[in-house]
Amino acid sequence: xxxxxxxxxxxxxxxxxxxxxxxxxxxxxxxxxxxxxxxxxxxxxxxxxxxxxxxxxxxxxxxxxxxxxxxxxxxxxxxxxxxxxxxxxxxxxxxxxxxxxxxxxxxxxxxxxxxxxxxxxxxxxxxxxxxxxxxxxxxxxxxxxxxxxxxxxxxxxxxxxxxxxxxxxxxxxxxxxxxxxxxxxxxxxxxxxxxxxxxxxxxxxxxxxxxxxxxxxxxxxxxxxxxxxxxxxxxxxxxxxxxxxxxxxxxxxxxxxxxxxxxxxxxxxxxxxxxxxxxxxxxxxxxxxxxxxxxxxxxxxxxxxxxxxxxxxxxxxxxxxxxxxxxxxxxxxxxxxxxxxxxxxxxxxxxxxxxxxxxxxxxxxxxxxxxxxxxxxxxxxxxxxxxxxxxxxxxxxxxxxxx
Length: 403
Description:
Helix 6 (188-208) runs antiparallel to helix 11 (303-325) and helix 9 packs antiparallel against helix 11. By secondary structure, the chain is mainly alpha-helical. It has a two-stranded antiparallel sheet with strand order 1-2. Strand 1 (209-210) and strand 2 form a beta hairpin. The chain starts with a helix and ends in a 5-residue tail after the last helix. The longest helix is centred in the N-terminal third of the chain and has 67 residues, at 32-98. The protein has helices at residues 3-13, 32-98, 110-114, 121-155, 167-181, 188-208, 216-240, 243-254, 262-289, 293-298, 303-325, 331-343, 348-369, 378-398, and strands at 209-210, 213-214. Helix content is 75%, strand content 1%.
């Protein structure tokens, strides 16, 4: 057999070789043991993650529950404090009207006379003299308390209140200018007081900036200096004014609610209502600003607008109260810290106005009927209380104690 025939026979008898593509990989199906091992590993991982997340979730839930409990407790405490302050205010209001005797006035005529439903002596004593005086003290004290709490909350300094940083002194200087030279202008003293207060706010802010930011310690010191400038200006006005006008304005500068009338009560009531409405939306911004400007920006607060609005609102509240009653000193200084002690910093804006009302109304009752001291202007007693507290605050800050 030839070589060609042997090659042909081999090709017929042997099948051709099958070549598998290297791109195709055939894997056997996973058996039960593989699935069990894989599934067990997944379940174990999830179980470990759940075991690790369990304590964290419990801690978060416990913290949230504690915060809610604390908030409810703070709300109940605030409601209780406000109720007690309202009752105390009503008691002082009644005492202010009734103390001192109501000669030749029947007891049954007192309440109707308070609402203007009587004539003669009852109307004159109760409705025209005593009740306007008591309401003026109440409303002015609330405005002083609100203005002080706004400034202390914004600047985070218990010394930065309108009467300490010179805002009240500026309001007094503006009001004295009108009282001495244009006393017949309707509401001229109140308008001039607001103008003087706003002027002082602008000057103090401009002078207390350092590196583009307001230095709070510098603000307080500059405010005290500007208050001295306003005092010098008032003394100059006294040197060129008549003796009769000086006697009237001197008593007004001490701070007094004697001679109050219903027009002043209406102005103070409207001012307090407007100030409360404007302060309500500022409370959240002030809470953010208490964390610092950068964090406040991060939380979405409009820092510059909120700061300007708060300064102007506090200045207007203090100026309107000053225009009616005179600069009753230290009320705005002590009302805010008392409110913080009672309900905490977050709710101090709500409680500071009634605290201020109690302080001024109580001081006025003592100024009229207190043994060994009456009768004196209301501002004398508030100064006797507030001046030592101011010195104590200065000493604490000098020693580095937290304010």
